Every structure is written in structure tokens, then in C-alpha cells.
Amino acid sequence: MIADFIRILRAADIQVSPAEAIDAAAVIEEIGIGERRLLKHALGHTLAKTQFEKQSFDECFDIYFKLLEMDLGEATPTSDSGEAPDEPDAPSRDSAGDATDASDDADGEEGEAQEGQPGDQPGAPTGEAKKASKKPGEPGRDETGEGETDTQRASLVDMLTQKDQAALQAAISEAAQKVGLADAKLFTQQGMFSRRIMESMGLAQLDAHIRQLEENGESGKADGLREGRGQLFEAVFDFVERQIAMRTKNAGRLLREDALSRIRLSNLDRSDMKIMRGLIQRLAKRLASRHSRQRKKSRRGMLDIRRTMRRNVAYDGNLFELSWRRTKVERPKLLVLCDVSGSVAAVSQFFLMFLYSLDEVMPKTRSFVFSNRAGEISDMMRDGDMDQVMEQALREFGGGSTDYGMSMMDFAEATLDTIDHRTTVMILGDARSNYGDPGHLVLKEMHERARRVIWLNPEGESSWGTGDSEMKRLGAYCTHKQVCNSVKHVERVLDDLLRLST
Amino acid sequence: MTEMKNQAQDAIEAILAGYEKLGYISDEQIATALFLAQKLEKPLLVEGPPGVGKTELAKATAEYLGLDMIRLQCYEGLDESKALYEWQYGKQLLYTQVLKEKLGDLMQGTNSLDESMAKLNNFEDVFFSEQFLQTRPLLQALQNEDGAVLLIDEIDKSDDEFEAFLLEILSDYQISIPELGTVKAKKPPLVFLTSNNTREIGDALKRRCLHLYIPFPDAARENTILQARVPELNQQLRDNIVNFVQAVRQMDLKKPPAVSETIDWARTVVLLNMSVLDAEFIRNTLNVLLKFRSDIENVEGEIARLMRETQLTPDTPIQ
Questions:
Q1: Coil, strand or helix: which one is A333?
Q2: What integer pLDDT is reported at residue B4 of this predicted model?
Q3: How far apart are the first and last CA of chain B?
Q4: Across the interface, which of A31, A289, A296 has its CB nearest the CB of B200?
Q5: Of A32, A49, A322, the CB nearest to B8
Q6: Same-domain pairing of B224 and B305
Q7: What total of structural domains would you count in chain B?
Q8: pLDDT at position B39, please?
Q9: What stretches of chain B adopt beta strand conformation (E)?
Q10: Cβ contact (<8 Å) for B4 and A38?
Q11: Do B243 and B206 share a structural domain?
Q12: What is the rounded distance in angstroms from the CA atom of residue A414 to the CA atom of residue A58?
């Protein structure tokens, strides 16, 4: 049971390691499963390790154990498998003994439970079917009892004629385990799994039995069974759907995010913007935490002789206080220039968004945007909402045709004095200068002063230097040139940058 | 099964009651976590916003169990020599100096080099012995005869390396000292780790711990806490304070007031002998509750609204 629950938790994006699963088992040993609330707290402490996980854990726990509780609450003897029962409301469980009564009773209840009788049995309207099923109840049981079937514990025909809900449920869960429903991943597999479960429950026998009944002229009985078969189908289908939903709650989102992180940013759909923003924030956080602690690295075991000597002059040269060598990891000083015209704008936007999510590890960032002129947007970025900033930036600096020469001049004028051997200059643009001055002389000067000049181009490498692309000329003054048009690229670029800054 | 369950529940209720006697108002979540930590001998990682009583929990636990509390405050650059043990280098150095002087006396009567070496060998182990070992919190906790409560405070402030170094201690309650061998805990200490989540704690560490998240308390619980902590306060004022603070927490603030701030504020009220909470008083003492200039400014403008919402009548008009 616990294994099944943990599998569901994993599907809900909660990381559960085998060690934690063992802990969970130990917890259950201590607490017992009777006291639901206590168990929830206890398992929560053991399995869910962040606030976010706690939330999903609570949800999963509630769903899973509510279903289980119904099972336990009715004290049915067969349902020990722990699989969640499918019927939301099945009160006639205790009535398996008295078949005639029970079938009447159960039929009525069932009509409520599954609103709208399934219409897939040919030509058997609900009212009629009800009557029909009431009549043959008794003889039906007799016949199947002594008849052909004895393969299953209780044959499917038996269970259906008796409306033995508990046995049916147990059979469904058992069959589900047998066909490996737990491995189901996609909703498209729903039909297949339903079918398999039915088959494993003895569908073939049921059909054969119905056929036989019809041949013998007992069409009323056959209709009754057929109706039951329809309902069973529905129930199994429902059961499979819920199981798959529980197990794959997050798989869809994860798939989508993975795809989004690879997609070209300029092809991004507006509706995906929101997911994208969340994705970027998470990636940025991961990056930040990976790099935030590397500022000082003491090199273990390397004695800094000079400092040690100096410190210990006071002790008459006896080496009381030792001092070890350490290297200091510097935070990169970053200057960014982004093209916000046309097709590059989308990439720029996400690049800047990513960059500012990293404020924590790269506080010394200044950013500029340009189209025909360049201007600084650092302050706007720090307190503004991203969309607004981009809009404003586009209004102020966008519009005209791209002018690399002019923009580079603006950029240099504002920053050249601050560029030193610790500065990294990053330029994001397609280097298409409309056959004007690409500003390579300015770039050359920056290149000479800066530690690194990195050019990020959203275009593929094959189109560099074609048409009005000045990538060849500008690229001569860059330490790195990289293609950058998806979130994956952006992440890699920034990761490298942070790592290089040792 | 039922018997076991009852035992567990009884134990948890006993813990709850025990805390309450000590003036630490907890809830079932916290008590369950402590119960499990004791039973499974696992460290407990406590997270939550600053000021909700994470450190206090460890203190209360130590008091409740009657154990020593050993505290290790983490900070960036904390390393094992400060957390675990250190050789007292100065003392060792002095020892060699003394040894040097005594060496002549010692070596008297030895004729060959071998003989003197053999004699020296008798002293060798002294040099790296417990005599020169300066124990630090972690080692102290392991060496304590009756077990102890070990509080590793603000683990998120330490480095990744230190976190990795903790793993051995936390899973096996033992530590290897190269010169002495492995030190095993006589009785596993009860370990609390607290974190303010300034950075993600590594998965490896998380996996070894039970995890407890303490959120801001709801009004009822905060009321009980105040009652336990500032008993001088009357019912009416307590309600007012709690309601006001709860309302402030709803606002979008840099740092919402935590329980410790509520307690401070309540103490202020007692100290200034206030009989009602009026706007004037609130404005003057907002700095007790809020720790950022911009937050104070934000709330100042909203005092009237907040008071109305919490059914306080603003006695003095706000200019």
C-alpha cells in the first residue's frame, strides 16, 4: 500500500527516495494507520521536504486515503489490496447474501450513483432493464452456480447478477494490478487498460454466457447481464481514468516545460508566456543557488607562509597562528546590450528576465537596450514589472530601423569608462545592421579593455555573415560567439559566465 | 495495532502538554514531528519564516526532556575546526618547547640512537590525545553521556561543504577523527536543524531529516502564545493586538511581523501601561512590529483601515 501511495506522490512531483520510503514504513509502524490525521502529519514530516511538496502531499494524501477509507469503513473482507475503489457511492455491499433483495436494492442505488444509465446496451431502456434484472435474479444465480464457470474465485457472471459491489471492486483492483495499470502514463492508454482489466476479469466468459442465455431463449436474463456489463465497463473506465489522473497529474506539465525550454523563443506562443515565466524563475533559482556560495574558496591545506610569518611576528616568530591560502571568487561585473527590435525582441526579453532573476548572484549588472539608439534600463528592470519595462523600452528605443553604429556609440559613451579587466560585456543581437556601420571599431575598443566580450546571436550559425549580417566583422572582436535562442541556451550561457568568473 | 496507535497518540499528547507547561505553545504537527524524531532517531529540519519560534522549539525540547542543549550557530565559512574539534596548536607547541628542555634529562642513560628512539616512542601518542583536543559543539553533543539536544541553527547560512560534512554525523551519529579514530555517540543526540530558506538545502541532507514547516500561527494560537508569554496583558488588549497583527500580515510587506515581534509589541504595551490600542500609540510603536522603513510607511497609511477591520475605534483622528 505504501509503495503505491509513494508512486502517486512521485507522480505529483514529490521526490521520494527509497530511504524515505523505508522511513515512511517505520513511521507507519510507530503510528499505525488508524489515526488518519496523525498519520498525515507524520508522513508529511517524513516524505514532503519543502513547502510546495507539503501542499501537493496534503492533496494526494486526502484523495488517496479518502478512497481507502471508504473501503476500510465498509469492512469488506476482500478489499485488502489497497487500490482505491472506483464507485463513489455503493451502499449495498452487505447485501451479497440475499440475492433477490439485493439486486433490487442495488439497482436503484446504482441508478443514482452513475447519473444517466449507460446507453450502450442495445435496446434496453432503463426502466425495462430494471424490471428484467429483478425477475431473473434468483434463477440466474442458481444456474451459474452449478454451470460452466469455476475459473475465477467468483465468476464475473455471479458478481454481476448478484450486484456484489464489493467483490466487483476487489476484482477490478486485482485485475488492475495484474495488467500493470500503475505503469500507465497517458490518457490515450485509458481505453486499452480498461479493456485489459475487463478481459482479465473474465469478459470472454461473460459474453459467452450471455450468448448462451440468448440461444436458450432467456432474453430477459441476457439483457440484465448485458446491462450489468455496460455498467461494469463504465465503472472500469472511470476507475482507470482516475488512477491515471492521479499518477500523471504533473507529467503533462513537465513534458510541456521541457519542450518549452527548447523551443525557439521567437516562436513562443503567447499562451505559454506564463508557464515560461515560472520556468525561468525556477531555472534562475537553481542557477543562483549553485553559484551563490562560491565566492570564497579556501584551498585546504595550503599554508600561506608569508601571511603566517607576518601574523606571528608578535609571538617571537613561533608559529602560533596559521593562515591558509584562499582564492577569492569574484562576482562578474556585467554589461549587457540587447537588441529589442523585431525578431530579437522576444529573446532579449527572456534573456533580461533571466538575468534579473539572478540579481542575487550578479548584483553588478547594467543593462542597455537598443534599436536605433541605446539606453540604460537597469533601474527600470530592478523595480519594474517585466512586461511594462519591455513595453517602455520598446517605446523609447525601438521603432526606428536598427542602427548598430549609433547604438554602439551610445553604449560606449555610457560605459567605456567603467569597463576594466573584471568586466564582461554581453551583446545580444542578430548583427544585422541594414548595411550601415556595424560599430565594430567601438567594439574593438571595448574588447581591448574588457575581460570578455560575448556575442549572443539568436540566428543559427549558418546564417551568420549572410546578407546584411555583420557577424563576421563584429565576431573578430569577441571572445565568445554563441547561438542563443531558447531558454536552454540562455541558461547555459549564464551558467558558463558564473563559472568562468573565478 | 490499535494499542500501538494509542501509545503514539498518548505520547504526542504528553509532549503537547509538556511544552505547554514550559510556555511553548505548539500544535499537533510539531508534537508529532518531535515524537517521530525521538522514535526514529532522526534529525528534524525545521523551516519557516524568521521569528516563528524555531530556535525556541529546540530550547523548549531540551528543557522538556531535561537534556543539555548544545547550540551551533552556522555562518558562512564555518568549518569543521569550529564545529567539531580542533587541536590546540598553541598548547601542543608549548608542550614541544617544554619537551625540548626536558629532552636532555630524558635521554640521559641512553647510549644508542635506537634506545633513545624507543624511549621517545613512549611519548608519541600523547601529542595527539584528548588532552590537546578542543571539543566543539558537534563533538560535545556526541560525547554527552545522557544524550543532548543539538541545535544546528540557520543551516542555510553555512556552506555546501559544511552541509556535506554534517551527513555522516546526522545519519550514523558518529564522526571520524583521523588521529583518534571514530567517535560514536554514547546516546544519539536529538538534532534540530533550522533554516530560514535563504537557500535551498541539499537533497542529501533533506533526505536524512524529518521535515517540519512552522508557519505563522493563526489568531487563536497566537493568542494562546501571548497569554503564555505576556501574562500581564488583559484579555481585551490581547485580542486587539493579535487581530491587528494578523491583519498586518495580510498586507504585502517585505518582512511581515512574526510571533517574536508580536510578543515584543505586547511587552511594549505592558511597559507603557496602555489601556487601549489607539492610533497614536500604534503609529509610534510600529517600529517594534516592522523592521523596514518602507513597510512602516506602508502600514502607517493603512492604520485607520486596519483598525476598523479589527474593530478598534481610532480614538485620535489621523492627520
A1: strand
A2: 53
A3: 66
A4: A289
A5: A32
A6: yes
A7: 3
A8: 86
A9: 44-47, 68-73, 85-87, 133-135, 148-153, 174-177, 181-184, 190-195, 210-213
A10: no
A11: no
A12: 53
**CA torsion angle for B83, B85, B88, B92 (degrees, to 10)?**
-160
What CATH number belongs to A262-292+330-500?
3.40.50.410
- Any chain B CB within 8 A of the CB of A36? no
The low-confidence residues of chain A, meaning pLDDT below 70, are 1, 66-154, 163-166, 182-187, 246-274, 289-301, 327-332, 342-343, 359-361, 383-387, 398-400, 500-502
* Same domain, residue pair B155 and B57: yes
Same domain, B128 and B29: no
Interface contact A17-B1, CB threshold 8 A? no
- B262 in the same domain as B208: no
CB–CB of B199 and A292 under 8 A?
A: yes
What pLDDT, on a 0 to 100 scale, did the predictor assign at position A119? 38
Domain that holds residue B124: 85-133
| B35, amino acid identity | F
Q: What is the pLDDT of residue B192?
A: 92
Q: Is the ipTM of this complex over 0.95?
A: no
Please tell me if residue A289 touches chain B, with a CB cutoff of 8 Å.
Answer: yes
Mutation target to probe the B interface, by most B beta carbons within 10 A, among A1, A23, A49 is: A49
Q: Which residues of A touch B93 (CB under 8 A)?
A: 318-320
Mean pLDDT along residues B95-105:
79
Query: With contacts defined as CB-CB under 8 Å, which chain A residues touch B32?
Result: 38, 41-42, 45
Q: How far is A31 from chain B (nearest CA, A)?
A: 5
Q: What is the pLDDT of residues B236-251, one digit of tens each?
A: 888 888 888 888 888 8
Yes or no: say if A232 and A168 are a contact pair by the CB < 8 Å rule: yes
